[in-house]
Amino acid sequence: MKQEMLINVSQPEECRIAIMEDGVLEELYVERTSQDNHVGNIYKGRIVNIEPSIQAAFVDFGVGRNGFLHISDVEPQYYRQGGLDPDKAFEVPEPAGKVAEGAEGAEGDAAARARRRPRLGDRPRVKPPIQDVLRRGDEVLVQVIKEGFGTKGPTLSTYISIPGRYLVLMPPLGRVGISKKIDDEHDRRVLRDIMLDLKPPKGVGFVVRTAGTERTKGEMARDMAYLLRLWKSIVRRMRKYSAPIDIYQESDMIIRTIRDMFTEDVGRILIDEPAAYERAREFLELVMPKYAPRLQLYEGKEPLFHRYGLEEEIGRIHQRKVPLKGGGSIVIDQTEALVAIDVNSGSFRTEKSAEENAYQMNLIAAREIARQLRLRDLGGVIVNDFIDMRKEKYRRGVEKALHDAMKRDRARTKILRTSPFGLIEMTRQRIRPSLRKSIFRDCPTCTGTGMVKTPESMAIEVMRVLQLSAARTDIARLNVTVHEEVATWINNRKRREVAQFEDTVHIQLHVVGRESVSPEHLVWEASDTSGRTVRFP
Asked: Model pTM?
């Protein structure tokens, strides 16, 4: 499998990163300097309000919008001290060097877990009421885990995690875990031995990432040393400044993507801007010197994304209808509460039965749905309406195809079984607004509905308002400004009714049509017999 990472930063306002596999766009990341990007940042904040009814606190962390902190995201250390105590923060009573079975939820000895004392970093099954844990004015060290949407502020957590290339620093976990995504027992055993030899210091915890598989002890040691230096600087800044203050900011998107997405399968990284190239080169030489030669500066005259045919592909990402191989299609509708995806067979045909046709079409659609969810960064509740199939084995086959296609997705997902109506419901982690929300805004003409009133509907509305003016004795002239099509409709189709109205109520009507206004534009100006403006309607 040939992979390439293309990084386009020729426009200073926007950074785009595309990951291609065998010439096909599989992942796309877009970030703009004008948009807030707080996910991963660490702040020292102050509690400004406690809401017992929803078991949450609102935190001022210095960005202009208060963050949302639920009791489930409050570290147990706050249960004892009530707010952040810089001198006692993140003390861990357990000895260093112990390797545990995955802070991410991997299997372990249940009896041993039951016997041991609760430690900082453990999430207890029963949380105390938030009003008994925090008070207004308390200081907390928080990390943004989800951007704000609409009127909602960012979601915060006191469970701090700082990713490196191969490890994730998770103070105050107090132990080392292995990612549950590493399911090979031999690899887990090797990683446990390496981490035991490294003897991480008391007071911090680490989780080995999937990228740590088959890494040498030296590579792991360098990553651990880097994270420990970073954590010491965070603690110093935390103790020095009072809330609200930013403590740590995540790397820019180029460094984050290379750190998190680069694998041995990526044969080349192309960057089209010299300064960004130098930043990436310094990072690679520091963290992954072995792979630094794979980084190249693109110096072609044709824009990078045009050179690889990506601009046209990106343009199709925003279309509602996505064509599939063989003649089928999927239709994606994004609403406020959920995403609805409908699978259509179109002209797709095989030489087999209708049931087999539906099954093969659904398999193709399942793979494309997973790809579109990644490319568009759609999150929340997603309802997939596949073509109906009667055979249970075919239904299970489509479910498996969707599960397999979603495995490469970095966002957390949960997929349910096929419902009696042929729907597969799923959820996908929403961290930031979708690509569509980031690039587009609601149409000011249709206000996001995608539809406007017809000229006939607007003409009827004008006539209704005219009837309202019949009861007024202080109006002698009415000027109405509408779209040109509406004015044409009134002057042609409603001419007799308008003339009858003018003769009956002795009010002169003047219709002005303008092409440059919205189809639903409707503005009235009323005046009396002396020409003075009268308020109407």
From this structure: 0.74
